[in-house]
Amino acid sequence: MFAFLNGNIRPRNLGILMVVGGPGGSGSSTIAKHLGKHFGLRRYYGGARMRQIARDRGYNSLADFYETDYFLKNSVEIDSDIDKYLVQVSYQPDVLIESKTFAALSHVRGIPCTVKIWIDADFNVKVKRTMLSRGGYSNPEDIDENSPEYKEAYENLKTRYQMDEQRYEKLYSIDYPGAELYNDIVVDSTKLDVASTFNLILNKIKDGGFIS
User: Fold this and answer.
1) Minimal CA–CA distance to 50: which of 41, 61, 39?
2) Among 66, 102, 167, 169, which residue's CB has the most CB atoms within a 10 Å radius?
3) For residue 177, what pLDDT is reported?
4) Which whole-number Å values give the CA distances from 159 to 45, 63, 101, 155, 173, in the listed order?
């Protein structure tokens, strides 16, 4: 099964098509930026388009946006439009697509990818990383898991994960927790910093012969 755009299979001379995904707080966005720079790839981020849609509707929080009547009524159309955009950009030369769904989508639609990478972490670690990314804390040890801020961040991330799982199963019958089904490389970054995660992935790419 092969992917077609306007009747054409993605030519090999378009070079690398790398896919990086992971749930919120996993560190996938940071690693995607490093990989894109290292391999000279143009990075496209599906989540950025979703966040822009949320901001256009007056929401800075995806968790809040996911609970709106507008999203509940239009989620299939919104997700489909984002995925159509990602399929289109996959036909550009030397591309990195950062997306929670594209690894599975490429599997379903037969889009040939150079390598597909999934990054995950312990849920509590993901919550703290999310809090760190928003500012106010300098390191995870400063975060009290009994604090109202932590509990709010925990519930927001949990809501995002549950909504993502339900949406992707409904849209494409994707087994969201089953990263190994769709990805070539799956990394648990719970006990790794950014540099260690990045170097581990580079070694796996090299050892797997995905990029010479």
Assistant:
1) 61
2) 102
3) 61
4) 21, 6, 17, 6, 19
Cβ 11 vs Cβ 178: under 8 Å: no
* Full set of structural domains in the chain with CATH: 16-191 (3.40.50.300)
| Residue 17 contacts residue 114 (beta carbons within 8 Å) | yes
Comparing CA positions, the residue from 35, 10, 38 lying closest to residue 22 is 35
When the pLDDT of each residue in the chain is averaged and rounded to a whole number, the result is 87
Are β-strands 8-9 and 17-21 bridged in parallel, bridged antiparallel, or unpaired? unpaired
Residue 20 pairs in a beta bridge with 98, 117
Confidence of residue 184 (pLDDT cuts 50, 70, 90): very high
φ/ψ (deg, to 5) at 41: -105, 145
56 Cβ contact partners less than 8 Å away, ≥ 6 residues apart: none
Structure tokens that stand for 142 in this block: 């400063």
**Among positive and negative, which fits the CA dihedral 93, 5, 99, 197?**
negative
Closest CA to 29 of 47, 4, 49: 47
What are the φ/ψ torsions at residue 187 (nearest 5 degrees)? -125, 135
Residue 59 carries which side chain, given as an amino acid letter?
A: Y
Q: What is the pLDDT of residue 115?
A: 97
Decide if 3 contacts 94 (C-beta within 8 A): no
Average pLDDT over residues 137-161: 88
Identify residue 62 by its one-letter amino acid code.
Answer: L
**Token pair 């929401």 is at which residue?**
59
Amino acid sitting at position 88: Q
